[in-house]
């Protein structure tokens, strides 16, 4: 089972456990286990316990794929589920014995509330687990249990209103805190201290972050780019029109910025109508702090009608991407992103070089600039590099069918000594990714390091490995076409790219298709 499927399985099991346990609590009647509700309550409670066990197994399996997939599920969700199962089991035993029925029903509902908090922890707590969000979830479980106790024991209007009011206030405050922590006001300036309390007084050797810019005397061939952030409508190949944000152009992704090593990049960002402000963050690429767009930390967010110019030397060849870092969880999702490629001095050996960000919007998967097929013709023996960047918040698997390929770069940087992949698949974690294919010659045309050796005409026939055909890719018998597509739909089970920090995970692969359509 793939990682996206495991994430979906965990979410389904966790919410099923909460729903079934809460259903048992609300179904349990005031007469205890002697009434007609006995079997339905038993069935619901047993189903809830089974679903909780399945969620725990899915979380353990996700931990094997990477701690970042399961951290909050095991550290926060699993303890909440354990408390929920224990409380529900205690309540069920009391209810079946018709002893302390109001308390029994309260424990069942409280257990279901704990399981609901466990299911929500993946979205509300995130990875790594945030202490404030964890405390808010725990307090919400306590207040929900208190509210159930006040109602079931008929404590009167005041206790019910008190618990309900505190629960509502806590939830509103939690949402407000999450929103504020995800937003830097367009005029917010970075303080002199990152700690709590009053800012530390400036020292004689203090340097303002606005002074940490590329020196004016920096040299190199100037490559200037103008990016205008604004709202626009994008018509997908499916015919659907979606409201998007972008850095210019008619497509979803911003324009590709491609330079050569040693160039002096000047990227001017203008904000036309993004009300919350916008910045340019160079994801995975090292630039002076004053050139990087982390709103409220390294610079102010660019308000509507304003602009900012990032200026730096392109001295790190590789595949990168740029995106807004002001409310990035929303801005990137709506389209404020694009590819940034730095070619090595002297150019690249591949005949065709495509930078393809993978994104999901309006229920469609967009690769590059469209959700429809794309076709690039390549002659036999020519090489094709696909630089695949995952802009989603969960892993994406890409595949090539019909041609051998090599993963030649990870996290945007070239690898040494890579070999031909026979699995025809490459995974990409959330963040930038690139996949480049280098050609493997056809029989009789020579050999290339890292490619399989072709048998001579007098050798026993050894057929090439049969290409794997993953979900999401298509091949035609005897066809030399190669297609790439996500093999599994990404899920939004957990935020991997937060408002002020992003995880990385690029893949570069290489292959030699005759024609390379890329949907």
TrEMBL record:
<feature type="compositionally biased region" description="Low complexity">
    <location>
        <begin position="479"/>
        <end position="492"/>
    </location>
</feature>
<dbReference type="Pfam" id="PF07732">
    <property type="entry name" value="Cu-oxidase_3"/>
</dbReference>
<feature type="transmembrane region" description="Helical">
    <location>
        <begin position="132"/>
        <end position="152"/>
    </location>
</feature>
<protein>
    <recommendedName>
        <fullName>Plastocyanin-like domain-containing protein</fullName>
    </recommendedName>
</protein>
<dbReference type="InterPro" id="IPR045087">
    <property type="entry name" value="Cu-oxidase_fam"/>
</dbReference>
<feature type="compositionally biased region" description="Low complexity">
    <location>
        <begin position="443"/>
        <end position="461"/>
    </location>
</feature>
<feature type="domain" description="Plastocyanin-like">
    <location>
        <begin position="232"/>
        <end position="345"/>
    </location>
</feature>
<keyword id="KW-0732">Signal</keyword>
<dbReference type="InterPro" id="IPR011707">
    <property type="entry name" value="Cu-oxidase-like_N"/>
</dbReference>
<keyword id="KW-0812">Transmembrane</keyword>
<feature type="transmembrane region" description="Helical">
    <location>
        <begin position="41"/>
        <end position="62"/>
    </location>
</feature>
<feature type="transmembrane region" description="Helical">
    <location>
        <begin position="6"/>
        <end position="29"/>
    </location>
</feature>
<feature type="transmembrane region" description="Helical">
    <location>
        <begin position="159"/>
        <end position="180"/>
    </location>
</feature>
<feature type="region of interest" description="Disordered">
    <location>
        <begin position="418"/>
        <end position="519"/>
    </location>
</feature>
<feature type="signal peptide">
    <location>
        <begin position="1"/>
        <end position="16"/>
    </location>
</feature>
<feature type="transmembrane region" description="Helical">
    <location>
        <begin position="74"/>
        <end position="95"/>
    </location>
</feature>
<keyword id="KW-0472">Membrane</keyword>
<keyword id="KW-1133">Transmembrane helix</keyword>
<feature type="transmembrane region" description="Helical">
    <location>
        <begin position="107"/>
        <end position="126"/>
    </location>
</feature>
<dbReference type="InterPro" id="IPR008972">
    <property type="entry name" value="Cupredoxin"/>
</dbReference>
């Amino acid at each position: 089972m793939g990682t996206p499927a495991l994430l979906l399985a965990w979410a389904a099991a966790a919410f099923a456990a909460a729903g079934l346990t809460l259903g048992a609590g609300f179904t349990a009647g005031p007469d205890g286990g002697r009434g007609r509700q006995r079997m339905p309550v038993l069935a619901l409670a047993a189903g809830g316990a089974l679903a909780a066990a399945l969620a725990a197994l899915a979380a353990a399996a996700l931990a094997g794929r990477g701690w970042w997939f399961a951290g909050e599920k095991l550290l926060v969700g699993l303890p909440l589920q354990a408390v929920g199962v224990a409380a529900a089991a205690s309540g069920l035993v009391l209810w079946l014995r018709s002893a302390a029925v109001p308390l029994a029903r309260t424990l069942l509902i409280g257990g279901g509330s704990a399981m609901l908090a466990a299911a929500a922890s993946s979205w509300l707590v995130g990875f790594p687990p945030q202490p404030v969000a964890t405390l808010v979830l725990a307090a919400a479980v306590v207040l929900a249990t208190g509210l159930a106790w006040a109602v079931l024991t008929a404590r009167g209007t005041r206790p019910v209103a008190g618990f309900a009011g505190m629960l509502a206030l806590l939830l509103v405050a939690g949402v407000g805190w999450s929103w504020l922590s995800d937003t830097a006001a367009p005029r917010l300036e970075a303080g002199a201290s990152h700690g709590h309390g009053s800012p530390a007084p400036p020292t004689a050797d203090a340097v303002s972050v606005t002074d940490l810019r590329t020196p004016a005397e920096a040299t190199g061939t100037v490559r200037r780019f103008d990016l205008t952030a604004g709202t626009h409508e994008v018509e997908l190949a499916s015919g659907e029109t979606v409201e998007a944000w972008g850095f210019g152009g008619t497509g979803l992704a911003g324009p590709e910025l491609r330079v050569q090593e040693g160039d002096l990049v000047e990227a001017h960002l203008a904000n036309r109508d993004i009300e919350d402000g916008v910045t340019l963050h160079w994801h995975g690429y090292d630039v002076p702090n004053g050139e990087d767009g982390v709103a409220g930390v390294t610079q102010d967010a660019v308000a509507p009608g304003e602009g900012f110019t990032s200026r730096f030397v392109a001295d790190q060849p590789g595949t990168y991407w740029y995106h807004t870092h002001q409310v990035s969880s929303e801005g990137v999702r709506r389209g404020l992103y694009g590819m940034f490629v730095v070619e090595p001095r002297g150019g690249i050996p591949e005949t065709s070089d495509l930078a393809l960000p993978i994104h999901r919007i309006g229920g469609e998967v967009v690769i590059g600039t469209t959700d429809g097929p794309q076709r690039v013709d390549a002659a036999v023996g020519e090489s094709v590099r696909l630089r695949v960047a995952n802009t989603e918040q969960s892993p994406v698997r890409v595949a090539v069918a019909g041609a051998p390929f090599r993963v030649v770069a990870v996290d945007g940087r070239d690898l040494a000594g890579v070999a031909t992949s026979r699995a025809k698949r490459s995974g990409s974690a959330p963040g930038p990714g690139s996949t480049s294919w280098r050609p493997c010659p056809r029989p009789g045309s020579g050999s290339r390091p890292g490619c399989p050796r072709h048998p001579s005409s007098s050798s026993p026939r050894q057929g090439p490995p049969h290409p794997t055909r993953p979900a999401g890719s298509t091949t035609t018998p005897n066809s030399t076409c190669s297609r790439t597509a996500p093999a599994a739909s990404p899920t939004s089970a957990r935020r991997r790219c937060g408002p002020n920090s992003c995880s990385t995970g690029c893949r570069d692969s290489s292959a030699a298709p005759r024609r390379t359509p890329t949907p």
